[in-house]
Amino acid sequence: MVRLHAEERRRQLLAVAREEFARVGPEGARISDIAKLAGVNVALLYRYFESKEQLFEEAVVEPIDHLLQDVLAQTVAGSINGSSEAVTIFYRGLLEVFVEYLDLFNVVLFSDRDSGQEFYLRRIAPFIDSLAEHVRGAAGTLWAQNADPALSSPMCVGMCWGIAMDAHFRGVELDTDEVARVLTMITVQGLRGETPPR
């Protein structure tokens, strides 16, 4: 066993656990397997984490939550000048998160229905609600559409999710800059590339 400083060891254990949870899901993951993959004994792993649930929360759930909050913060910061660049920043950031962490989202949302619903209601729904509030406050300056942000915000998140999932399963590398540009055009100008009448 390689000796690491406590914080380095903690990061290593989280990284190994994240990979194992993504590979076999939270129900299939075993503490003993995670410890073995990390090159430590189970007792050492339990010095850092009280339970598999805590390890899952810190290795998978919290990082996803932080990533979503970072996307929202970048979007809000980018919309200060009132340009459509904020929309592009949002799409690019969210696409990058979904492309990079699609397996983890799948594990969290779809490995167990009750856990997935709890995660969605505790982490994803507040993200979408915060986005809707931001859009509601900026809609007049960013685009002329009259869509209800409570409907358009989950739609925008869903477009990113669908595009990331499609690219993943097709084995295609996604050009997030180009996709963000196209999604921004659709969001700001409509599907026909023009601002719809009011």
Topology overview:
Layout (H helix, E strand, L loop, with lengths): L5 H23 L2 H8 L3 H7 L3 H27 L6 H26 L2 H30 L6 H22 L5 H14 L9
Helix pairs in contact: 1-2, 1-4, 1-5, 4-5, 4-6, 5-6, 5-7, 5-8, 6-7
**CA(first)-CA(last) distance:** 66 Å
Biggest β-sheet strands, sense, barrel? none
What form results from the Cα inertia axes?
A: elongated
Provide the structure class: mainly alpha
Strand content: under 5%
- Poorly predicted spans: none
Total beta strands: 0
Helix content: over 70%
Element order: H for helix, E for strand: HHHHHHHH
Features:
198 residues; mainly alpha; 8 helices
What does this structure look like?
- It is built from eight helices and no strands.
- The model has no long low-confidence stretch (mean pLDDT 86).
- The protein is an all-alpha fold.
- The N and C termini lie far apart (66 Å).
- Helix 1 (6-28) packs across helix 2 (31-38), helix 4 (52-78) packs parallel to helix 6 (113-142) and helix 6 (113-142) crosses helix 7.
- It is elongated.
- Helices cover 79% and strands 0% of the residues.
- It has helices at residues 6-28, 31-38, 42-48, 52-78, 85-110, 113-142, 149-170, 176-189.
